[in-house]
Specification:
It is built from one helix and four strands, in the order βαβββ. With about 100 residues, the protein is of the alpha+beta class. The protein has a domain of about 30 residues. A hairpin with a 5-residue loop joins strand 3 and strand 4. It starts with about 40 loop residues before the first strand and ends in a 7-residue tail after the last strand.
Length: about 100
């Protein structure tokens, strides 16, 4: 939640990895060639998050591969920008 005044504390990220990773200009990783960026959120329980999103009618695709750094799923914002959800391997996500 965004604070409504200066006395309320802002959102705080729990300890864990944060990355800013530039991609080549001609990357196909984001899907549509016109997209140049993507948000990636750490989640504690990817399966539970997918259940919540799908129950709300939001299309989300689980990447079936499990990577050394965890599991991923992708959805899109209303403008078609990709959003990736990441459940780190080994419990690095917030509880």
């Amino acid at each position: 939640m965004v604070p409504s005044n200066y006395e309320e504390p802002p959102w705080q990220q729990q300890a864990g990895p944060t990355a800013f990773a530039p991609f080549p200009e001609d990357t196909a990783y984001f899907g549509d060639g016109g997209k140049a960026w993507m948000l990636n959120f750490r989640v504690a329980n990817l399966d539970a998050m997918l259940d919540q999103l799908r129950a709300a009618g939001i299309a989300v695709e689980l990447d079936p591969q499990i990577y050394p750094n965890g599991r991923f799923a992708r959805l899109y914002d209303p403008e078609g920008n990709p959003i990736e959800l990441w459940e780190p391997a080994g419990g690095d996500a917030p509880g």
